[in-house]
Amino acid sequence: MGTVTSLTGYNAVVIGGPMYVGKIDGMGKFAKRHSTELARVPVAGFVVCLAPVTKDPVDREYAQKALRASLAPLQQVAEMVFAGRLDPAKLSWFQKWMIKKAKSPVGDFRDWTAIAAWARELPGKMGV
Ligand SMILES: Cc1cc2nc3c(=O)[nH]c(=O)nc-3n(C[C@H](O)[C@H](O)[C@H](O)COP(=O)(O)O)c2cc1C
Q1: What's the gap in Å between 84 CA and the centre of ligand 1?
Q2: Which tens digit of pLDDT belongs to each residue from 17-57?
Q3: Are 46 and 82 in contact (CB under 8 A)?
Q4: Which of 1, 63, 64, 93 makes an SS bond possible with 51, Cβ 3.0 to 4.6 Å?
Q5: Regarding beta strands 43-49 and 13-20, do their DSSP bridges make them parallel or antiparallel, or are they unpaired?
């Protein structure tokens, strides 16, 4: 999202990003910046976070709502909340402190089979 300057020439757009402290990095700004072009093409969105790992439906719902809010008023043709990963070795001391306080699950929870299955369905859903 940081490097795309124009959506001219795209006939479908898949937008995704990680959730940090309840917010999806850069997604809202990207959607606003390209709102006119995005309104003309099918859009699918996903968020990567640890909400699916906690198995608490409230966490997943929060992530889904954050995704919708970031892309609003766009209507997504497909949306997904994917489980990500948390490697404490890659975090700053402050981030480590935050995840400890939040009792975040630690590990790699990415389900590549589920990710591939979702991706395979996109062309059909997006009509491309
Ligand atoms: C400081 C910090 C804050 C986070 N905040 C949330 C959060 O609010 N909700 C959530 O579900 N996951 C949260 N996560 C987990 C990340 O979404 C997860 O690590 C994800 O895989 C990050 O994407 P990336 O691996 O592409 O950077 C947080 C992780 C860190 C390190």
Answers
A1: 7
A2: 999 999 998 999 999 999 999 999 999 999 999 999 988 89
A3: yes
A4: 63
A5: parallel
- Indicate which residue's Cα is closest to atom 9 of ligand 1: 22
* Residue-range domain boundaries for the chain: 13-123
What pTM does this model have? 0.95
Q: For residue 51, report the distance from its CA to the centre of ligand 1, in Å.
A: 9
* Spatial separation of the C-alpha atoms in residues 126 and 128, rounded to whole Å: 6
Ligand 1 pocket mutation pick from 21, 27, 47, 50 by most atoms within 8 angstroms of CB = 50
Tokens read off for 89: 């070795």
Contact partners, residue 96, CB within 8 Å, separation at least 6:
88
